[in-house]
């Protein structure tokens, strides 16, 4: 999620937030937007640099995002939402999507949800990504995919289902609920298992240690040391879910004081050949 206004001050060739490798294609740039942002300049700069698709994050309920009147706060403000969606569509001719949640858990949540979907559709949005949890649930409880058929039946644009989808086995298990969606989105599980898509319909031999080190190499390549340090810790928190007893990896890496220290501690953990689980659990992570 990119702070939309900050894009105006970033260099696309140097910024770790914006640049991409030559083999990366059709990248969606997800924006934290709010009413009053200079969308003509922001979206114009993205277009100048060959960006193909933009996603508006209207789902994040983090306090710092709400304080900016963005994310879930923008979704709840019907007038501001209408203004932002209309201006984004006016100034962006490429693919435009929005990521949303179910809203606040109230007796009338479906009415409010439908009103906001209609506003987004009327603006000309191309598709909606629906994480089927309420705002305050964060990543707790289960995603409520039983609402996908109702949402898809009442929407004029394609619906993309998101939440608690870890791989093809989940798609098969939830087929009746997911079938009305036109696509699925996988979030945290793609961090836990970066090979997930390569192994979607085939068997792939994974060297977990090599994957962890390669990811750290990429992070160090992209970010300055102080930022890379925190990013590697964040990635490791998720990656540890691959192990039956991954807590020691999370703990030892979180207590490290340098990237070299992180690598040394993680290498010691991997050398013990910890047991890998078939299905990582990431609820609440």
Order of helices and strands: EEHEHHHEHEHEHHEHHHHH
Largest sheet: 7 strands, parallel
Tell me the β content. 5-15%
User: Could you say what the CATH topology of the largest domain is called?
Assistant: TIM Barrel
**Class from secondary-structure proportions:** alpha/beta
- Note poorly predicted spans: none
CATH architectural category of the largest domain? Alpha-Beta Barrel
What does this 3D model show about the protein?
This protein is α/β, with parallel strands linked by helices. The chain folds into 2 domains: 2-186, TIM Barrel, CATH 3.20.20; 193-285. 42% of the residues lie in helices and 11% in strands. It has 13 helices and 7 strands. The protein has helices spanning 39-48, 63-67, 72-76, 78-91, 109-123, 148-153, 168-173, 175-178, 188-192, 208-222, 225-239, 247-254, 259-271; strands at 2-3, 28-32, 53-57, 95-100, 127-131, 159-162, 183-185. It has a 7-stranded parallel sheet. Helix 5 links the parallel strand 4 (95-100) and strand 5. Helix 11 packs antiparallel against helix 12. The protein is globular and about 55 Å long. The relative contact order is 0.08. The model has no long low-confidence stretch (mean pLDDT 94).
């Amino acid at each position: 999620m990119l702070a939309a206004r900050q894009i105006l001050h970033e260099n696309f060739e140097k910024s770790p937030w914006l640049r991409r490798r030559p083999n990366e294609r059709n990248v969606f740039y997800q924006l934290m937007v709010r009413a009053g942002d200079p969308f003509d300049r922001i979206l114009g700069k993205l277009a100048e640099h060959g960006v193909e698709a933009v996603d508006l994050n209207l789902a994040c309920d983090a306090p710092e995002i709400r304080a900016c009147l963005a994310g879930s706060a923008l979704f709840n403000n019907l007038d501001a939402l209408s203004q932002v969606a209309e201006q984004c569509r006016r100034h962006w001719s490429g693919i435009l999507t929005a990521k949303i949640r179910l809203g606040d858990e109230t007796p009338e949540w479906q009415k409010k949800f439908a009103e906001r979907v209609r506003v987004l559709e009327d603006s000309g949005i191309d598709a909606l990504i629906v994480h089927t949890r309420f705002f305050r649930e964060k990543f707790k409880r289960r995603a409520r995919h039983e609402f996908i058929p109702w949402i898809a039946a009442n929407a004029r644009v394609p619906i993309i289902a998101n939440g608690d989808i870890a791989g093809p086995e989940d798609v098969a298990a939830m087929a009746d609920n997911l079938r009305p969606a036109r696509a699925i989105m996988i979030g945290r599980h793609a961090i836990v298992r970066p090979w997930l898509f390569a192994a979607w319909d085939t068997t792939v031999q994974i060297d977990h240690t090599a994957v962890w080190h390669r990811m750290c190499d990429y992070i160090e390549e992209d970010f300055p040391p102080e930022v890379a340090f925190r990013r590697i810790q964040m990635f490791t928190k998720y990656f540890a879910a691959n192990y039956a007893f991954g807590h020691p990896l999370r703990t030892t890496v979180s207590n490290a004081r340098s990237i070299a220290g992180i690598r040394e501690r993680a290498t010691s953990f991997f050398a013990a050949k910890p047991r890998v689980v078939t299905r990582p659990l990431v609820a609440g992570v």
